[in-house]
Amino acid sequence: MNNNRHAYLIMAHNxxxxxxxxxxxxxxxxxxxxxxxxxxxxxxxxxxxxxxxxLYFTPKRYDVRWGDVGQVHSEMHLFRTAYEHGPYQYYHxxxxxxxxxxxxxxxxxxxxxxxxxxxxxxFTLTDFIKGDIERKRRRYYFLMRWNYRTPFVPKWKVTxxxxxxxxxxxxxxxxxVDRGNELTFRTGHNWVSLTGDAVKYLLDQEDxxxxxxxxxxxxxxxxxxxxxxxxxxxxxxxxxxEDGIHSCMRFIDFNRAxxxxxxxxxxxxxxxxxxxxxxxxxxxxxxxxxxxxxxxxREITEQIRKLQEN
Length: 310
Prior knowledge:
By secondary structure, this protein is an alpha/beta fold. The chain is 42% helix and 10% strand. It has helices at residues 16-25, 70-85, 104-113, 127-138, 155-175, 196-204, 206-212, 223-229, 232-237, 244-248, 259-263, 275-280, 294-309; strands at 6-12, 31-37, 54-57, 90-95, 99-100, 193-194, 250-251, 285-286.
């Protein structure tokens, strides 16, 4: 392929030292980096300045909140910003607390070998997931901007929003409200590596996405998966429809998550001593990391830099 350039699309709101480590590890002449800093961040941190990549900040910053449609809007803004600077062979969506666990040579070689595949991971269709999809597909979820995952919002507002939201859901159940079933609705891991064709298809559907996934809880885990799997040509290119972690090629472990992390829908945070397991895995990226565990970050960084120099 003539164009093997990659775009990294990163969403960040804290952990600036970790973000700078991520930026340094993907700093490569074959990559451009697109960065969205949450609008709630009032004082912009010092950001690593790449030596080889071009770094672009998104023209617009969104107030991103868990479960709210603002997450969808900010993602689509990142996709559009990167697409307009393209073309790119692949668009990698990462969080600011993710890290690559392979060198850039390895990552580019992997995507050259699997060119055209879409790396997007779907949640396994257990009875719970089927019920969750049906609830999200069918009902309107109001006031998601104020939920228990927004500690910066006054508690009275979160409580009031919860009462209104739950009352509205009950009324919808009684009235058998159904928003429609116009897609093959699926949910999955938010972090993806997509071809330019898939990104363009999402961008072409932006008006529909904004309309259909407004007032949907955790729409960011639903819109890409539902739109892309509903396209027969793109569905055929999905890397692995059975194993979601393998399909997105990101080492994400929910099994070892603490009880509190599971309650909040968060994965296990990689800890000191986990580096060898991560580096020996087949995956290209991993999440999530924390500055609370600097040892694992340091080991991965040192190993990747050592390999990149050779």
